[in-house]
Amino acid sequence: xxxxxxxxxxxxxxxxxxxxxxxxxxxxxxxxxxxxxxxxxxxxxxxxxxxxxxxxxxxxxxxxxxxxxxxxxxxxxxxxxxxxxxxxxxxxxxxxxxxxxxxxxxxxxxxxxxxxxxxxxxxxxxxxxxxxxxxxxxxxxxxxxxxxxxxxxxxxxxxxxxxxxxxxxxxxxxxxxxxxxxxxxxxxxxxxxxxxxxxxxxxxxxxxxxxxxxxxxxxxxxxxxxxxxxxxxxxxxxxxxxxxxxxxxxxxxxxxxxxxx
Amino acid sequence: xxxxxxxxxxxxxxxxxxxxxxxxxxxxxxxxxxxxxxxxxxxxxxxxxxxxxxxxxxxxxxxxxxxxxxxxxxxxxxxxxxxxxxxxxxxxxxxxxxxxxxxxxxxxxxxxxxxxxxxxxxxxxxxxxxxxxxxxxxxxxxxxxxxxxxxxxxxxxxxxxxxxxxxxxxxxxxxxxxxxxxxxxxxxxxxxxxxxxxxxxxxxxxxxxxxxxxxxxxxxxxxxxxxxxxxxxxxxxxxxxxxxxxxxx
Lengths: 261, 249
Fold this sequence. Notes:
The structure holds 2 protein chains of 2 kinds.
Chain A: H1 2-36, H2 40-54, H3 59-81, H4 89-128, H5 131-137, H6 142-179, H7 185-194, H8 198-224, H9 229-259
Chain B: E1 2-12, E2 15-26, E3 30-34, H1 41-48, E4 56-61, E5 64-65, H2 71-80, E6 81-84, H3 96-101, H4 112-125, H5 141-153, E7 159-163, H6 171-188, E8 191-195, H7 199-205, E9 208-213, E10 216-221, H8 223-228, H9 232-238, H10 242-247
Parallel strand pairs in B: 3-8, 3-9, 6-7, 7-8
Antiparallel strand pairs in B: 1-2, 1-4, 4-5, 9-10
């Protein structure tokens, strides 16, 4: 009886301890990565390759998502506004929504799958096959060799990919308005310009930098935490995608609450 | 000059793997550590270059307390201690040449030409001439182990730590690896520590053999002393007789 009463308490205690340990390990990795920034001779040669892998290779998926998002936004705006709101507001809604919200968030979520999963699987495989230990024995700091180039590449390339997605989404909405909604180009552009502020683009950039840092560092963290062979690599990959997606949505709300007042 | 592990304790969660492990490896010798699977042989070996840190105890290499070394001092030590991993741990995305040259790139003043020369020299030592441009996936198990050995000797270490060098290899390839371990000692004069449960290999290559059992060293001596020991745990292991292990105290 006493044992069964204690069991929930033990479970809660275990979960709390495990969470604190995870936060501790994440903090340890973060401190190690910041210290490793000094070792440019290790991470420098790999930065360009990671920028290509994380940024350039992600362009097709980002364009694909933005293209269809722009089309749907224009069609749904037109459907919603019919008869009640002037149609040029389609341009306003497409522009504002793409740049402030859907461009960064949808691209961030898609890249948490493409980039974050890739990083977690790659480093996780290196961990279980002792390649990370091998780096250590050859006098390489794994943080400098593996973490820094990936996280820096994420922070630098996510904004570029997101800005491209923003532009493609707006362009897709514009073309949809012209060819599927019988709206003139001038009408769409009038709405697009109406509430446009350069700050919106900066907001998109700030969000995407934070998403880039999140996706890459979470991928690295779960990669380094991998144990137990192929099954462990699979678990790390899944956790990386789930956790970075959740953090992206929390950050999305955080930036809206702090920067859009 | 030696490697000394003194009263090392190490646990992973509730599992206590090392329970007062003490061992000295003297310069110029090849010492094999034998013991059943999962008793902590590799765990002990990883402590020597601080891939793992002990919960209790000390590790000394050439008079340096490994636990107190700064990061840079530790990297200096690691250049003096080559580590040959059980499954070679070659970097998949690199050619054999780049794998072998990885450690050399970290030594100040080494030009690309000098690194290339040294890599070719090391590949020649392990009989892998002409394999430099291949990727690890294109090598057999034995070739991969030899490439891992070439990478470990590239920085001309004083010590070589071998983690199960013949596990998973056929008898002929195992003999080739054993011959290479003896050649490393003969030609490069390196001190070797070999983790193995391959008794034939242990008797062939070792000056001394230590047996790890229940987290501690159960036996240490020459191969001849090992053959003659009456300790039932040791005899049970080397003769492959679980009945002796069961009755042992």
